[in-house]
Amino acid sequence: MSGWTDAHCHLQDRYRGDDESRGLDASEAVRRAVAGGVTRAVVIGTDATTSREALQLVDALSTELDMRATVGLHPHDAEQDVAEIQALARRGHPRLVGIGECGLDYYYEHAPKAAQRVSFATQIALAHELDLALVIHARDAWDDLFAVLDSEGMPPRTVIHCFTGGPAEAERCLAAGADISISGIVTFKNATDVRSAVLVTPLDRLHVETDSPFLTPVPHRGRPNEPAYVALVGECVAGLLNLPVETVRRQTAKNTARLFAISG
Known about the structure:
Elements: E1 4-9, H1 26-35, E2 38-43, H2 48-61, E3 66-71, H3 83-91, E4 96-105, H4 113-130, E5 133-139, H5 142-152, E6 158-160, H6 167-176, E7 179-182, H7 192-199, E8 206-208, H8 230-241, H9 245-259
Parallel strand pairs: 1-2, 2-3, 3-4, 4-5, 5-6, 6-7, 7-8
Helix pairs in contact: 4-5, 6-7, 8-9
């Protein structure tokens, strides 16, 4: 079944790891994605280097697959200078569709909470300034996340990527105006909260993603994730919603095109 969109993946060299045999070669990953029925993928930046690489990759590989890119500073790296991200975004690029991933991560707290909040607020402002979608990373920080969003104003096109909350958090996100993106976590045996969140999310607010090379869905656990596996996420979502897989494929692709203002 063709026509899947991977709403969030990382194909940059940074994510291949020290042992490249265990990582992803972007060209090979794109070829396997096309063979697996993927027609669009959004490559996500997490710092200045990976943001530049995301733009370079979509330039190089979009003849095979419709690829778009975002630029952003991940909360883990919130102490880095966000000015490089601002400059890169303001320079413009025909395939630049979003700001992020950015947000708050209090589970690992690799950067101080205060620095995370400042970096997040700055990137929300950038999304508003450039009328780009906002891609949010949120983990164990819901109250502060919404406090910052309330202060800066939720951009009209916002998504909580790799959603890890339960139905209460999903309903809070939806009420605030954000979409929900579901990763391979939904296929994990212990992901009861995420599956429950899917059940309270309207189909026209759902996206499917791989977050490659992380969070490989069942039955491919133990190997790097890649965009070719996004159909497994969509099939799991379809089963939960008791809908035809084709309905989920078509609607999630439409949702992601709307989120990132992609025409055609």
